[in-house]
TrEMBL record:
Name of the featured protein: Abasic site processing protein YoqW isoform X2
Record lineage: Eukaryota, Viridiplantae, Streptophyta, Embryophyta, Tracheophyta
Record keywords: Covalent protein-DNA linkage, DNA damage, DNA-binding, Hydrolase, Lyase, Protease
Molecular function via GO: lyase activity; peptidase activity; single-stranded DNA binding
Annotated Basic and acidic residues bias: 261-273, 296-310
GO biological process: protein-DNA covalent cross-linking repair; proteolysis
Organism listed in the record: Phoenix dactylifera (Date palm)
The keyword Hydrolase is assigned to this record: yes
Gene: LOC103722590
One Pfam family of this chain: SRAP
C-alpha cells in the first residue's frame, strides 16, 4: 500500500526520471498540461495533484497516429469514468490498485490497453504496526534519484461539465527486504526497459514488470509520526529519527532492581538461619531460590500477601515456631551471663579480699569495739 509520498520535482526532473530524454532529446521540451495545479510537497496524500507521464496522440499535422509522452497534472485517487455525474468523488477509495487483480475488476481492466501512465516521486512513506502504535518509515533510493511507479489513469465529467483526470498507483507483494514493514509495496519501474514496457500500449505481457523491486539500492529509515497528518509538510517530514528501545521499560527496570536488592539481603538471612537449629516450619525453604521464585516473591510482597514462611495447612503452630524470638532472647541472655561469669571467676580472690576488708566497715568495727570492751 502506498498512501503518502514526497514529490517536489519540477517537470524537467519528472521527464528525466521517466527516461524521456534518454534518446538525446531535451527533457524541458516535453509538453505539459495543467501544471498550474501542481503544488510540490513532502507529504502528498490522495486528493492532491501530481505530475503524471502519459502517452497521448499528437495534434494533427505533426504526425498522424503517432503518440508522444506528455506530463499531465492529475489528481491522485481514481474516479472511474462511469461514476455518476452527481456523485461526490472519493479519492481515497481507489488511490491504489492491486496489480494481481487489475484484469479482473472493471474499474481497472478497461484502462490497461490505453490508459497506462507513470508517476515520479522522490520517496514514499509506509507505516509499521506495533500493537496500537504505528511508526512511519521513509523509503527511497540510496542515491536519491526519483522512483517511478506504474499507474493507471481515467477521466470523469462531473455535473457541471468539468473534466477531472485522476490516477491510481499499482501495488504488488512486498520485496524480501521490506516484508518486515508491510505486505504490499508500489510497483517500482527501476530501469528504462521496464518503463518502456509499461508505457508502450502495444505490449501484451505486463506481468514481467509488475513484480516487487528486489534491488538493494532501495533504503529506508524511521521518521516522525507527525507525517500521519496531511497538513504536516516540509523537510521535517523526511528527517531521520532515533527510535527508543522497547526491550526494557521503566517498570521492568524497577522490579529488576527490587529483585537485586532481595538477593543482596539473602546472605544476611542465611547467616541468621544457620545460627539456630532448623525446625519443620523452615524445612521447605530453599537456601537459594531461583529467578522465578524470587520474582513471584517480589510480586507477593508488593501485594502484601506473601506467605513464603507460612506453615503447612492443617498443622498448628507450635511453641518451637512461635518461640523463635524468645529462644533467641534466652540464648542471648545465657551468652551474656556466661560472659559475665567468665569475667567474674578470675576476679573471685579479689572479692574474698573485699570480704575480709568488710570487717573493717562501720558495723563490723563497732561490734568488735564493744566485743573487745
Amino acid at each position: 500500500m502506498c498512501g503518502r509520498a514526497r514529490c517536489t520535482l519540477n517537470p524537467g526532473q519528472v521527464a528525466q526520471a521517466c527516461r524521456l530524454a534518454d534518446g538525446g532529446g531535451d527533457a524541458s521540451s516535453i509538453p505539459t498540461l495543467q501544471m498550474d495545479r501542481y503544488r510540490p510537497s513532502y507529504n502528498v496524500s490522495p486528493g492532491a495533484y501530481l505530475p503524471v507521464v502519459a502517452a497521448r496522440k499528437e495534434a494533427k499535422g505533426s504526425g498522424e497516429g503517432r503518440e508522444a509522452p506528455v506530463i499531465h497534472c492529475m489528481k491522485w485517487g481514481l474516479v472511474p469514468s462511469f461514476t455518476k455525474k452527481t456523485e461526490k468523488p472519493d479519492h481515497f477509495k481507489m488511490f491504489n490498485a492491486r496489480s494481481e487483480s487489475i484484469k479482473e475488476k472493471a474499474s481497472f481492466r478497461r484502462l490497461i490497453p490505453t490508459n497506462r501512465c507513470l508517476v515520479a516521486v522522490e520517496g514514499f512513506y509506509e507505516w509499521k504496526k506495533d500493537g496500537s502504535r504505528k511508526q512511519p518509515y521513509y523509503i527511497h533510493f540510496k542515491d536519491h534519484r526519483p522512483l517511478v511507479f506504474a499507474a493507471l489513469y481515467d477521466s470523469w465529467v462531473n455535473s457541471e461539465g468539468e473534466i477531472l483526470h485522476t490516477f491510481t498507483i499499482l501495488t504488488t507483494r512486498s520485496s524480501t527486504a521490506l516484508q518486515w514493514l508491510h505486505d504490499r509495496m508500489p510497483v517500482i519501474l527501476g530501469n528504462k526497459g521496464s518503463i518502456d514496457v509499461w508505457l508502450e500500449k502495444s505490449t501484451p505481457k505486463l506481468e514481467a514488470v509488475l513484480g516487487p523491486y528486489e534491488d538493494s539500492d532501495l533504503v529506508w529509515y524511521p521518521v516522525t509520526t507527525a507525517v500521519g497528518k496531511p497538513s504536516f509538510d516540509g523537510p521535517e517530514c523526511i528527517k531521520e529519527i532515533k527510535l527508543k528501545s522497547t526491550g526494557e521499560n521503566p517498570m521492568s527496570k524497577f522490579f529488576a532492581k527490587k529483585k537485586v536488592d532481595k538477593s543482596q539481603s539473602e546472605p544476611e538471612h542465611k547467616k541468621s538461619s544457620n545460627e539456630f537449629p532448623q525446625t519443620d516450619a523452615f524445612g521447605s525453604v530453599k537456601d537459594e531460590p531461583d529467578a522465578e521464585e524470587t520474582e513471584e516473591l517480589t510480586k507477593e510482597e508488593k501485594n502484601g500477601k506473601s506467605d513464603h514462611f507460612a506453615p503447612p495447612k492443617g498443622e498448628t503452630i507450635g511453641p518451637d515456631v512461635c518461640g523463635i524470638k524468645r529462644e533467641f532472647e534466652e540464648m542471648a541472655t545465657n551468652s551474656i551471663s556466661q560472659t559475665e561469669t567468665a569475667i567474674v571467676l578470675p576476679a573471685s580472690p579479689v572479692k574474698k579480699g573485699k570480704s575480709v576488708k568488710s570487717t573493717g566497715d562501720r558495723q563490723a568495727s563497732l561490734l568488735s569495739y564493744f566485743g573487745k570492751r
